[in-house]
Amino acid sequence: MFTRRTDRLTPEKRASATFPIAVLLLAICAIFVYLTIGGALLEDGKDTVVYTPQIADATGR
After folding, report:
1. Residue 51 lies inside a defined structural domain of this protein
2. How distant, in Å, are the alpha carbons of 42, 43, 49 from that of 46?
3. In Å, how far are 2, 9, 16 from 12, measured between CA atoms?
4. Where do the TM regions start and end (predicted)?
5. 13 in a domain, yes or no?
């Protein structure tokens, strides 16, 4: 897993993608938990209705 490098001035030949993937998954989980808890706290049993604006047709009615 860990390789011993004798020359410290050369760049890595193989980069690990574990850290960026872990950060991405952690962020997704945090957003999911935030939305779930926020939705549970704001839910009071009322249905929300959203009305879209009416668009006039080509005849102008």
Report:
1. no
2. 10, 7, 10
3. 12, 9, 10
4. 21-42
5. no
